[in-house]
Each structure stands twice: as structure tokens, then as C-alpha cells.
Design a protein that fits this description.
378 residues; globular; 2 domains; 7-stranded mixed sheet; 3-stranded antiparallel sheet; Aspartate Aminotransferase, domain 2; Aspartate Aminotransferase, domain 1; alpha/beta; 13% strand
Length: 378
């Protein structure tokens, strides 16, 4: 019987929880209704299922259900937010946006589009440990600042950013605040529940839900939102995101959100035990952790092992573990990590960087086999 490698690339995507799949299955065949159909029971049933899922997602932010806009994932949510603010910026005369040099490409590339439209884009640098200094953000806020966008946790290093402090600085200066919470939704539950953000982007497949569905938290201040649609052709999702709602995926998203709310503490505890075991092994072979060891999430490690190229490591261990050396969204052809480069790491350390990430269903890692390979290739 073929032995499959242990999957340790959860920051790229998670395997689906069997309970999520079971919740979705009836909506593919037995329950065919369109959530936008108002004239029959199938449509009503689908609409009720969508709204139930919306409540489970909103609960993570202590938000109102109507403040959750379903999308195809965090990438679309980021685009909807940034490009959807253009009209608001024109009306208010605010065209300055502050973000960081370590954001996901789903933030950095839309920001380049806005720059071509005349927006002023300010990217804050990070420390050598991959952390944004709130004082550096405050220093850049000015009268025409529209938005501050800082990811909650970096997808490559797992370093948690001080979004609570930054959101307060933004609010006290009358500036909108957004966080890309794709890597923290359902994991850093306490922070997200109390975070005073105007917008947040999330994906279902990062919490053992289905691929192809996510959401944008867009808080209502009064009865309005600052964003406007960037696609047209229907009135779904409060006219912000047109198109037939993918009911099975949304139901799965809701179930995954429900499970995460119930189990995040035990999941975090289990992840921490794996992290301690894995880090001990890697450090014994000379590995250097990339990113603040004090601020890194419990389920991810990014390390560089001097003298070992990351591509060579992944080839040598491909039958043991499945890992990554960068963001899955840009890894079809290897390019030096813009995140690690922004942290000021030298070329050799960047080229030897490896990301391990895990989650529910991973009980242990094959440390004996990894130790053997590391001894052989070191």
C-alpha cells in the first residue's frame, strides 16, 4: 500500500473536515434551490441555509449577519474592498492608503491598480522579525488618508501583527481600517472577536471548509457602507457582489465556522505541541526561525537551514512531508519571497527558507524520518 506524505501545508489550504462535507452534500442534489428564488420552498430553504451560515461567520467578529458579504474567497474580498472604495475616495477627497511591504499579493496588486488611478500608496516596512510597528503607521497618517490595511498574520511566517493597536490608531484619526484575516479567522478567535475593524477578508478553505467561498466583513456605519460593487448584473449580497450564491459552499463555510468556534482552543493546544516537537528537531539541525518566535501562530513555522536549499529539501522529503517555500498563490515558479526580503534577510537565508504549517487532523509529524533526511542532505 502506497504511503502518502504527511500534509504540512495548511497555510496554503486545509483538507476539508468530514462534518463540513456531510453538511454540504444534500445541497448538491436533494436541495437544488437558488437562494434568490422567492416563489417556492426550495428557494426559501436555500435562502434560510445561507442566512444561517452568515450568522455563524458573523459571530466570529461579533458582527451583524448583514455585515457579511459572501465572495469566492479572501482574494476577491480584498479586491472588492480596495477597488470598491474608489467612488468613496473621490467623494471625500481622500486618496491616500497605508499598507505594508509584507502583504499578500491579493492586497499589493490591487494597490498598484489604485496607484495607476492616482491614489497615493504608502507601504510601511517591517522589523527584522517581520512585525509592523504601529508608530510607523501613525507617522504616515495624514488628512487625506482613506484606509489602513494590515494583515492579521503573515501567510509565510505566521507572525501576528499588532492589529488591535493599529486599528485604534486608525479609528482615533478618522481612518478606515481593514485586515486580511485569511490566516487567523477561526484560529485567533479572541482577537478577532474584539477587533474594531471596518473590514476583514476571510476564506473558508483556511478552516477546513470548501474552496471557492469566503467573505468580506463590511461593517455598516449607520445604514451605509463605504464600498460600492466592482461587478454588476444582479442584486445579490446587498448589491455588492452579484451572481447566484453557491449554496453548498456557503453551507460548508458556515459549518466550518461553527466547528472552529467550538474547537479553536483544543486545536490551538494540539498545534502548539506539534510546533514544539518540530522546532526542537529543526533547531538541532541548525535551523533559524524566520519571524518573531514570540508572535508566531501555533500552527506554522518558517525556518532557514544554512547550507540547505529549500527546493532541494522539498525534493528530498517529498515522500515524507508536503511543505512549502513560499505563498501558494505565487509558487508555480519559484521567486524569492517578498516577505522575507522585506524583513532584510540575506539571499542565502531566503533561498533556504521552508514553511511548515499544520492543523486539525495532524496529530504528529514524522520527526524520525525528517531527522534521517536532514542528516543525509546536510
Amino acid at each position: 500500500m502506497q504511503k502518502f506524505p504527511v500534509y504540512l501545508d495548511f497555510n496554503a489550504t486545509n483538507p476539508m473536515d468530514p462534518e463540513v462535507l456531510q453538511a454540504m452534500l444534500p445541497w448538491f442534489i436533494e436541495k437544488p434551490g437558488n437562494a434568490g428564488s422567492r416563489t417556492h420552498l426550495y428557494g426559501q430553504e436555500a435562502r434560510d441555509a445561507v442566512e444561517n451560515a452568515r450568522k455563524h461567520v458573523a459571530a466570529h467578529f461579533r458582527a451583524k449577519p448583514e455585515e457579511i458579504v459572501f465572495t469566492s474567497g479572501a482574494t476577491e474580498s480584498n479586491n472588492l474592498l480596495l477597488l470598491g472604495l474608489v467612488s468613496f475616495a473621490n467623494r471625500t477627497g481622500k486618496n491616500h492608503i497605508i499598507s505594508t511591504s509584507i502583504e499578500h499579493k491579493a492586497i499589493l496588486e490591487p494597490l498598484q491598480v489604485l496607484k495607476k488611478l492616482g491614489f497615493e500608496i504608502d507601504l510601511v516596512d517591517v522589523t527584522a522579525e517581520g512585525v509592523v510597528n504601529p508608530a510607523d503607521v501613525l507617522e504616515r497618517i495624514r488628512k487625506n488618508t482613506l484606509l489602513v490595511s494590515v494583515m492579521h498574520a503573515n501567510n509565510e511566517t505566521g507572525v501576528l501583527q499588532p492589529v488591535e493597536d493599529i486599528s485604534r490608531l486608525a479609528a482615533s484619526n478618522g481612518v478606515l481600517f481593514h485586515t486580511d484575516a485569511a490566516q487567523t479567522f477561526g484560529k485567533e478567535a479572541e482577537t478577532l472577536a474584539s477587533l474594531d475593524c471596518d473590514f476583514a477578508s476571510i476564506s473558508a478553505h483556511k478552516i477546513c471548509g470548501p474552496k471557492g467561498v469566503g467573505a468580506l466583513l463590511a461593517r455598516r456605519r449607520g445604514n451605509s457602507r463605504a464600498i460600492e460593487p466592482i461587478q454588476f448584473g444582479g442584486g445579490q449580497e446587498w448589491k455588492l457582489r452579484p451572481g447566484t450564491l453557491p449554496v453548498p459552499q456557503i453551507v460548508g463555510f458556515g459549518k466550518a465556522a461553527e466547528l472552529a468556534a467550538s474547537h479553536w482552543r483544543e486545536r490551538k493546544s494540539a498545534a502548539t505541541r506539534i510546533k514544539e516537537t518540530l522546532l526542537e528537531l529543526l533547531v538541532a539541525h541548525g535551523a533559524i526561525q524566520n519571524g518573531s518566535s514570540m508572535l508566531t501562530q501555533s500552527h506554522v513555522i518558517n525556518v532557514s537551514i544554512p547550507g540547505i536549499d529549500s527546493e532541494a529539501f522539498m525534493m528530498a522529503t517529498k515522500n515524507i512531508v508536503s511543505v512549502s517555500n513560499g505563498s501558494a498563490c505565487t509558487s508555480s515558479a519559484y521567486q524569492p519571497s517578498h516577505v522575507l526580503t522585506a524583513m532584510g534577510l540575506d539571499e542565502d537565508r531566503v533561498s533556504s527558507a521552508i514553511r511548515f504549517s499544520w492543523g486539525p487532523g495532524v496529530d504528529q509529524v514524522p520527526t524520525d524520518e525528517l531527522d534521517h533526511v536532514l542528516r543525509r542532505i546536510a
